[in-house]
């Protein structure tokens, strides 16, 4: 016999010798089950409805862009691999998965300048990819939902974006007081950096990124990043800007100038940032935005001025804003945490100039859909929802055609339904229905078949009623949540159960 013959013994030996890969999910990526997928779709629908109501049109640019078109934040290297996921095309051009929706928009506008209305108001929703260190609610792939106005200059366009951001947060279910849109302007930052004698472009970028971490690290952590550097809890060291103590104090004083109302913050900033023409222009822009927000009905509780808001991306040139959820929750270790930022945006007047050589005013806002959906899922973690399909139990395999017909009748009237297709008995099938978050199960055995009826178990009502029953005999007698229905009316009755459970 040949040693290469494919015998059962040889196959068994090969299976033991072949190394098996470890089943593991890449860091920063999610495995999304039905409830999270549905939550993301719901949020995208709600936010895009707001954008459309304000006159924005949809646009999808696809996931890949050439690296040189993606933005100034990319490293100047032969092989771009920092911040983005890149690959080399067969024509030796590097392309990368989009980092956000704004850089692809800039490319689209430059490419189609003569064929689009100006200002061009578009919204976009879809996944973006960042090759960054992941963390809690910080993913490497996530869905963003953006609105941008290209060709719109002046404080009115920025104030409109802030108002849209507030409306989008409410559309996602946040009440006034549960969120805040925090606003700042890069002119103020530039003016203060002039006053702090920060001139080197590399140091300026480090300063921007450091100030952007004020909410997470506090004044002490930001001071370290502005100075010699900071080591985080994992031991990773982040190089600092190397500023002297006087410059650090000037920047921290500015970042901590926020007050309870926009008017009070403007007054506090006037004493700090009004030291040069750039800072003065920033104050004038914020004052104009404040007046327009009042006209739009956006209160101090909805949108506030916060000098610590920076937005880390380098292409912002004017006002910047960040949407923050203020609700607190406990993590898996019982620690009290705040959700933090779930969206942001700002003005980026020079992004399109990389393609055309001409400055084109633009402003936009983005909701982090994946982060917001994960946040809401964490908030609702303890709340069990019976939003799965009705499960038709398969107790007699010879009657599968009948079980399939029952499920089809339910689906025909808009009820999610499936037949159990496993090989287990009734107890395991009921356990399966519970794991599927089924609102009800349908049972047809010999007794039901002889009487021409079906038995329906309302799992939600049954669980609530069973909680008040302590005696097994009483439970068996009461059969909480269980009822019979005829073959003619069972579908309508089950639909009523499903609607009641999901009301």
Automatic annotation (TrEMBL):
Signal peptide: none annotated. It is found in: Cytoplasm. GO terms for molecular function: ATP binding; histidine-tRNA ligase activity. GO terms for biological process: histidyl-tRNA aminoacylation. L-histidine binds at residues 100-102, 130, 144, 148, 311, 315-316. Residues 1-29 are annotated as: Disordered. Residues 47-389 form the Aminoacyl-transfer RNA synthetases class-II family profile domain. Keywords: Aminoacyl-tRNA synthetase, ATP-binding, Cytoplasm, Ligase, Nucleotide-binding, Protein biosynthesis. Residues 19-29 have a biased composition (Basic and acidic residues). Belongs to the class-II aminoacyl-tRNA synthetase family. Homodimer. This is Histidine--tRNA ligase. It comes from Hirschia baltica (strain ATCC 49814 / DSM 5838 / IFAM 1418).
């Amino acid at each position: 016999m040949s040693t290469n013959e494919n015998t059962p013994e040889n196959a068994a030996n090969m299976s033991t010798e072949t190394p098996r890969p470890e089943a593991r999910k890449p860091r920063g990526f999610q495995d999304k089950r039905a409830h999270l997928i549905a939550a993301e779709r719901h949020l995208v629908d709600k936010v895009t409805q707001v954008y459309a109501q304000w006159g924005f049109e949809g646009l999808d640019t696809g996931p890949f862009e050439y690296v040189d078109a993606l933005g100034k934040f990319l490293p100047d290297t032969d092989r771009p691999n920092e911040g983005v996921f890149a690959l080399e095309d067969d024509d030796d051009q590097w392309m990368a998965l989009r980092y956000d929706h704004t850089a692809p928009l800039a490319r689209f506008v430059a490419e189609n300048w003569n064929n689009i209305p100006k200002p061009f108001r578009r919204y976009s929703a879809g996944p973006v990819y960042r090759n960054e260190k992941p963390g809690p609610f910080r993913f490497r792939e996530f869905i963003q939902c953006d609105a941008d106005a290209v060709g719109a200059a002046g404080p009115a366009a920025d104030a409109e974006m802030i108002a849209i951001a507030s409306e989008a947060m409410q559309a996602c279910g946040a009440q006034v007081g549960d969120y805040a849109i925090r606003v700042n302007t890069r002119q103020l930052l530039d003016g203060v950096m002039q006053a702090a004698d920060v001139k080197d472009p590399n140091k300026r970028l480090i300063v921007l990124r450091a100030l952007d971490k004020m909410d997470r690290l506090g004044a002490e952590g930001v001071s370290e990043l502005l100075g010699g550097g900071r080591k985080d809890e994992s031991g990773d060291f982040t190089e600092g800007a190397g500023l002297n103590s006087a410059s650090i104090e000037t920047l921290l004083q500015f970042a901590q100038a926020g007050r309870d109302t926009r008017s009070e913050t403007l007054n506090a900033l006037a004493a700090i940032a009004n030291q040069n023409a750039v800072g003065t222009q920033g104050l004038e822009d914020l004052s104009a935005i404040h007046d327009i927000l009042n006209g739009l009905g956006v209160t101090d509780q909805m949108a506030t001025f916060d000098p610590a808001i920076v937005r880390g991306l380098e292409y912002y040139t004017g006002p910047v804003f960040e949407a923050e959820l203020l609700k607190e929750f406990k993590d898996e270790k019982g620690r009290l945490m705040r959700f933090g930022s779930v969206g942001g945006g700002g003005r980026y007047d020079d992004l399109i100039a990389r393609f055309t050589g001409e400055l084109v005013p633009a402003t936009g806002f983005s909701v982090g859909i994946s982060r917001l959906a994960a946040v809401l899922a964490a908030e609702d973690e303890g709340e069990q929802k019976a939003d799965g399909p009705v499960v038709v139990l398969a107790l007699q395999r010879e009657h599968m055609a009948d079980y399939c017909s029952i499920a089809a009748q339910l689906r025909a009237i808009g009820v999610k339904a499936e037949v159990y297709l496993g090989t287990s008995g009734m107890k395991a099938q009921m356990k399966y229905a519970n794991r599927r978050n089924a609102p009800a199960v349908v049972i047809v055995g010999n007794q039901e078949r002889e009487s021409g009826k079906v038995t329906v178990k309302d799992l939600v009502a049954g669980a609530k009623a069973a909680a008040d029953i302590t005696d097994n005999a009483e439970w068996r007698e009461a059969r909480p949540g269980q009822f019979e229905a005829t073959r003619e009316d069972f579908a309508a009755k089950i639909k009523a159960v499903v609607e009641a459970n999901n009301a």
